[in-house]
Amino acid sequence: MIRIFNHYVSRTGLILLLFEMLVLQAAASTTVLVWSGLARNVLQIYVSGFAFALVNVFAMSALGMYQQQLREDVRATLARIAPAFVLGYAMLAVLMLVIPTIGFGRAGGFVFVLGGAGVLLTRTLLFTSSHSNMLVERLILIGDGALARECMELAASRGGPRRFEVVGCVPMPGEARRVPPAKVLPPGETLLALARRHGASEVIVSVGDRRSGGYPVRELLDCALGGVRVTDAAAFFEREASQIRVDSLQPSYLIFGGGFDQSFFRAFVKRTFDLLASGAICLATLPVMAVAALCIVLEDGGPVIYRQERVGKDGRLFRVLKFRSMGQDAERDGQPRWASAADPRVTRIGHWLRKLRIDELPQILNVLKGEMSFVGPRPERPYFVEQLTERVPYYNVRHSIKPGITGWAQVRYGYGDSVEDAVQKLQYDLYYVKNNSLLLDVLVLIDTFKVVVFRGGR
């Protein structure tokens, strides 16, 4: 994994994306140059090729073809390439209307076939090589308790070309064992000797209580000096799961772990992105919003817009705007309730508004007013914020930035209707608050597009 603008990105995935950009660029440019005869100069060839590569990489991203856990055979890759290129073809057709110099003439179909073949060949070579042990990273865990078990489960869940193998756990005094006995390494060797004998490249410190007299500080230093990476469990979860775990989080990790960019430049970039993204989506979805409003009125004649008090940045209250998706008496007794994926209070029209996330579109006005951002933690109601702040550590950290229409937790976790779900979503929100950047905002936007179009909502 490498870190770009505070966000962890798979090195293999990044290489794959860049290589496929080059393959698609070459396929399109060659077609324009040799076949179509539309290009009059080198710049026109380059622009046509770059546009073709960009829209198809975006389409493949929207279908999850660059996910870290993705590892597929040829048949599964073909099944994803086909709809991705159909989406790419539609996007390119719109782009050609805006930029007339982009064009492939009669070779339009051939360039997609050639580009698809190049992508298929690239992925076949990559995923074939991924079965090699050269791409398996071996880990040693310090500790054999509950935290070590969670690290083992995370390591086992990692698919894709880059995989992990936990060679064993070093038990610590006073910890209740929660890992399989077969994974406990026998005593007698130093950590550095164990790492070298098992070919481990990284040691994960997954000890719940580090005040124990048996905590191997000196041996961990020897590993670091000997070329074996030493990583804290919190950093391991942040890097591999894109979340910050609250059950094992030390306050010092948030204080000294970097991130939390609140500079003027970041605020300026964030606000510019909010205005551009909100303005573009507002213009593109005006017909959709008009139809949604009409359907709501026709179903029960009630108000179209629903206003609800939410908690924003620094705990300030504001009224969020949404298309009404529930009946007019959804909380007739005045008692706030968690919304769920199959909430019986949702109307027939409201079901589809939620499924397609159309109900969130009026929040663009909240963004334009500066009460919300386009990407950020979802704003919660004061009643639930008060409860969660008392029961969930670090919950108020999510209020250090503006809430968003969509967010890292929404595209990674989904609906939540309990305190346990709120904890899981908070762990993704903490990751976003700590590592937010323009890159992460764009990735959330792409994932939101994927959720809405291909998975039908949260």
Structure overview:
The chain is α/β, with parallel strands linked by helices and 458 residues long. It is 52% helix and 11% strand. The protein contains 16 helices and ten strands. It has helices spanning 11-36, 42-62, 74-98, 108-129, 146-157, 191-198, 217-225, 233-241, 251-256, 264-300, 348-355, 363-369, 382-391, 408-412, 419-435, 438-455; strands spanning 2-4, 7-9, 136-142, 163-170, 202-205, 229-232, 305-311, 317-323, 373-375, 404-406. Strand 7 and strand 8 form a beta hairpin. Helix 1 (11-36) runs antiparallel to helix 4 (108-129) and helix 10 packs antiparallel against helix 12 (363-369). The mean pLDDT is 85.
Q: How is the topology of this model organized?
A:
Blueprint: E1 2-4, E2 7-9, H1 11-36, H2 42-62, H3 74-98, H4 108-129, E3 136-142, H5 146-157, E4 163-170, H6 191-198, E5 202-205, H7 217-225, E6 229-232, H8 233-241, H9 251-256, H10 264-300, E7 305-311, E8 317-323, H11 348-355, H12 363-369, E9 373-375, H13 382-391, E10 404-406, H14 408-412, H15 419-435, H16 438-455
Parallel strand pairs: 3-4, 3-5, 5-6, 9-10
Antiparallel strand pairs: 1-2, 7-8
Helix pairs in contact: 1-2, 1-4, 2-3, 3-4, 5-8, 10-11, 10-12
Main features:
alpha/beta; 458 residues; 11% strand; 10 strands; globular
User: How many H/I helical runs?
Assistant: 16
Strands, count: 10
Average pLDDT taken over every residue = 85
Radius of gyration: 25 Å
Low-confidence stretches: none
Output the strand order for the largest sheet.
Answer: 4-3-5-6
- Kindly state the percentage of residues in helix: 40-55%
Q: Tell me what portion of residues adopts beta-strand conformation.
A: 5-15%
Principal-axes shape call: globular
**How would you describe the oligomerization state of the chains in this entry?**
single chain
Structural class: alpha/beta
For the biggest sheet, the summary is:
4 strands, parallel
> How do the helices and strands follow one another from N- to C-terminus?
EEHHHHEHEHEHEHHHEEHHEHEHHH
